[in-house]
Protein: 1,4-alpha-glucan branching enzyme GlgB
Organism: Jannaschia faecimaris
Amino acid sequence: MSTNKLGQSSTRQLPEFLTSDALADLNAGAHNAPFDVLGPHKSGNRRWITAFQPGAVEVAATVAGKQTPLSRIDGDVFSGPVSGKAYTLTMRYADGSVHTIQDPFAFSPVLTDFDRYLVGEGTHKELWRVLGAHVVRHQGVEGVHFAVWAPNARRVSVVGDFNHWDGRRNPMRPAGDTGVWEVFLPEVGEGALYKYEILGADGSFALKADPVGFGSQHPPEKASIVRDIKGYGWKDQGWMKTRAARSDRASAISIYEVHLGSWRRRYDDGGRPLSYKELARDLVSYVRFMGFTHIELLPVSEFPFDGSWGYQPVGLYAPTIRFGPPHEFRDFVEAAHAADIGVLLDWVPGHFPTDDHGLAHFDGTSLYEHADPREGFHQDWNTLIYNYGRREVKNYLVANALYWMEEYHLDGLRVDAVASMLYRDYSRNDGEWVPNKDGGRENYEAIAFLQEMNVAVYGADPSVMTVAEESTSFPAVSQPVHTGGLGFGYKWNMGWMNDTLRYMEKDPIYRQHDHHLMTFPIDWAFTENFILPISHDEVVHGKGSMIGKMPGTEWEKFANLRAYYAFMWMQPGKKLLFMGCEFAQPEEWNHNAELNWTVADLPAHKGVQHLVRDLNALYRDTPALHVNDCRPEGFAWLKNDAAQSTMGFARFGVANDVPIVVMCNFTPVERLDFRVGVPEPGYWEEVLNTDAAIYGGGNRGNLGGTDTAGVAADGHAQSIALTLPPLAVVVLRLRREAGK
């Protein structure tokens, strides 16, 4: 017994698939295979169309202009025999309104068997092309294909404005045994808001953002947004052809680290941050003026909490909407490339936040994270840790790394918090962690993931770079995977940063006792391909600004900072400096406000800025200062005098490259007639002096340079006598005759 469309009793024989259980599940929104019931299905010799349309008074199917009413079978389920194939559904509602749609249940699956195989195997390197929301033309109809991995869910639906956020209306179909659910929704398009409503394995309902969504609402709103990211039309082919040389160990790499939300703000427009398009104009031109070779962005993958600076991402595949839509982020990258500047992204595969709309407990189980909090909960950040041993999770992350390179032409990834991934006992006490299968602390699964990621990234395009923020002595971080390394291109030299800053923070009278802090780091300087980092982490959380760390009077503070920057730029290793440090911002960095650009126009601050620009130019234009950044052949000590807090060293390139001599004086005492041995005879031209008046110094120096004398010193047959200004670094370059 059933009821017809007018609610009257009907004795019509129902098809076998319309069981009482199926009808109950459809009305409850709990059917786990709705495509087995809804849409067109044959029963005997007849073709039935079944629709679930909450709120409809009448439903009819139209085929070739002929309308056939469907009977109300039970609740909001309508069904009836209809001849023909292509059809539309028309609903009439109690208020008299009428709505006609293409029936999503009339469309076949979009995912191919091969895609399903790769997803199930956890080896789909282009995962973003099959999961997420894609504007497509399917079976001759425009719409959006949605696909999400939720293997333990009882039911998954797409909800949005297009279906009144009712999870019963557009349930998805399982894609075989891959754990993926998919559906094609006709007439949905670019800009549509959506979430996934998931009936979890535990019986709970949850609304989740798309893990592979290309766009999101502006926080605190949480919905994903359909973004069509196809067909941008890149014009940076010239850059891409030369990128390999620019990321090579022998190249000059000087990185400007930026938090986009606080570099500059538009106080004439409510204090908002600059948009991607404004940054493409203003930030790119500034970085080019300053002579940096790369911009490194703090994370831009969508994140809910501004105070995390992006380090707690929810949408790994979505450039944050805070500054504009995805194509405008591409505009920014392309503008950088047009200015011969690379763009690196701070990438966070180490953990994710517990926000309800994110990955946490995604399908009613610990899907992306470990179930055991000793493995799956990060105590320092109150975040969850990826289960790197699960092939689908590893695939999700590896594909994300490839996605940023492929879709946004990024030039590299700086991988955040690598140390927290490598060790199971990271920041944990005894009893708070689970040993590996051999009883040790190394996280074998995370190590395998990092190796696979690096192999995949460099295999797809060897011209990019990956960089590890790794603070321990874990071996071979920047060595190839086939030799047992992690496979990164570069590693941050956190030890160098910590030691040298400890030295610089000391009153000069005490520095003689800690001279080793400046000299000892060279002992391991060539064990990895190092970047010397002065990052955002050094100017937050009560650490003070860079100028604030320096001891002494105001003049001495600036002199110390100028000397430190010159020491850093002349040392082996690539360079990284956080925004604001280049003009000695006096305050700690505040992510809620723009940099203190007002002080950048004051003489002392402008002097530091001018120095950093000149250091970049000297580093970039002098092979001896970068060709052997990662090779011991490029460095030699000349002089070390702990009692006087002076040190000197030489830098070398390859054959015929002019050598450089660097002398440092880290006391406020001027050293006159200071003799130092040099590697070759001739005239040594003073090419940089941090005490120059243009930088804010006292203009003491060597009158442009000096000739060698036949006086043996420091193991060399010739030497030069220098004036070493107080708290200063002097850089000299051998002037060779033409052809030598």
Q: What stands out?
A: The longest strand covers residues 66-74.
